[in-house]
Write a structure and sequence with these properties.
- By secondary structure, this protein is α/β, with parallel strands linked by helices.
- The chain folds into 2 domains: 4-141, Hypothetical protein VC1899 like domain (Restriction endonuclease-like) (Rossmann fold, 3-Layer(aba) Sandwich), CATH 3.40.50; 153-378, Trna Endonuclease, Chain: A, domain 1.
- It is built from 12 helices and 18 strands.
- Strands 3-2-1-4-5-6-7 form a 7-stranded mixed beta sheet, sandwiched between helices.
- The model has no long low-confidence stretch (mean pLDDT 91).
């Protein structure tokens, strides 16, 4: 067991909790600026079960002279009662350098054992940088879906969303809905569902007198996927009872993509997923209002977020929305985020998505399943 773990606080909270779980220290020292006090609050709450012995060293990262004096003073007062691990994945470069200088002084005077480590998100290992370089020295502990949300001040609404392992059981009807999408949209062109007030004897479509066969097939698939139940089709009308969807037409047009993403990722789960949900509502930073995410999961200490859009044209606004929401729910970095879409996209928009770090997947492609797994597991 490590005696003391020293960590810099930033919006990049995932590595800090991973380090606390991996090294399981008796004491944690947080080096924190005034601006990151809220992130510190979340981290302390998430690590209290590991050790209640936690101290905060507040510094001004914009003033190197003041920060050096503060850290030098702190290390002078620090007792030489055990080994120290300094984790420097997070925080600013100046915080890391000044802490290393303080540690060097501490070592020379106290002769304590000190290690400096950094987390490699690709290998999920901690590399030792000091005293002797050693790659992949410590295997990372893994965070659950709940833990990743908690360290960013967020939480899943109770019983919200469909768990990816449950979605795995209905992969087949969801995949059939994906394959039907193009001909279904062609059959539904210029057609719209009637209002609830008009549906006293069952729902019907405006814009024609028939109920296309492919639409009937899609509705039965929606029932097989557990979105609706008690489906009845009589001539040009249909009725149903909602289960996971209150709008059967919306489900076969759009919402199936959210469930399909979860089902595919669960089908190909290699044991690295630590929870994931489709159509999940999350209370972001305890603001009291819930934001719905089309698919949100955690794999190998990364938050994986997919937004799903069945629209005529993808515009920059959809890309900015994905980028903003993934930062809001999970802080900075250690993300994989993307947009699952139906229309073709021009080269310029693809370049913009690349600059934002937003993955793109056209769901109607033949290789959509393989591409989704590859992009989600990078």
């Amino acid at each position: 067991m490590t005696h003391t773990l020293i960590q810099n606080v930033s919006d990049q909270c995932i590595p800090n909790l991973v380090a606390a779980k991996t090294f399981h220290p008796r004491r944690i020292i947080w080096i924190c600026t005034q601006e990151k006090k809220q992130a510190l609050k979340y981290l302390q709450a998430a690590t209290e079960y590991i050790t209640p012995d936690q101290a905060v060293w507040e510094v001004d990262a914009r003033n190197s002279e003041t920060m050096q004096r503060e850290l030098t003073h702190r290390f002078k007062q620090y007792p030489d009662d055990g080994d120290i691990v300094y984790h420097l994945t997070c925080g600013t470069k100046s915080m890391a350098v000044q802490t290393v200088i303080g540690l060097a002084t501490h070592i020379s005077k106290r002769h304590v054992k000190v290690s400096a480590v950094v987390m490699d998100p690709r290998t999920q290992k901690f590399d030792v940088l000091f005293p002797k370089a050693n790659n992949d020295a410590f295997a990372c502990s893994f965070l659950s879906f709940t833990e990743v949300l908690k360290i960013h001040g967020s939480e899943r609404r109770d019983k919200s969303g469909r768990a990816m392992q449950d979605l795995k059981k209905i992969y087949e009807p969801l995949e059939q809905l994906r394959r039907l999408h193009k001909p279904l949209m062609k059959a539904m062109k210029d057609r719209r569902i009637c209002s609830k007030e008009e549906a006293r004897n069952g729902y019907f479509l405006h814009g024609g007198s028939d109920l296309p066969t492919i639409l009937q097939q899609a509705l039965y698939l929606a029932q097989e996927a557990g979105a609706i139940k008690q489906l009845r089709i009589q001539q040009q009308r249909f009725s149903f009872q909602p289960v996971h969807s209150h709008d059967a037409i919306a489900y076969i047009r759009n919402t199936w993509m959210e469930d399909w993403a979860g089902a595919v990722l669960a089908k190909h789960d290699d044991g690295a997923w630590r929870g994931g949900y489709s159509s999940v509502k999350v209370n972001i930073k305890n603001k009291g209002d819930y934001q719905e995410f089309d698919f949100l999961g955690v794999r190998n200490n990364h938050l994986v977020y997919w937004s799903c859009k069945n629209i005529k044209e993808v515009k920059p606004a959809q890309l900015f929305e994905v980028d903003a929401l993934k930062d809001e729910v999970g802080g900075r970095d250690f993300h994989i985020s993307g947009l699952i879409h139906t229309p073709n996209m021009d080269h310029g928009l693809k370049q913009k998505a690349a600059r934002l770090g937003v993955k793109l997947l056209q769901v109607t492609r033949d290789d959509a399943e393989e591409t989704l797994v590859r992009l989600s597991c990078q």
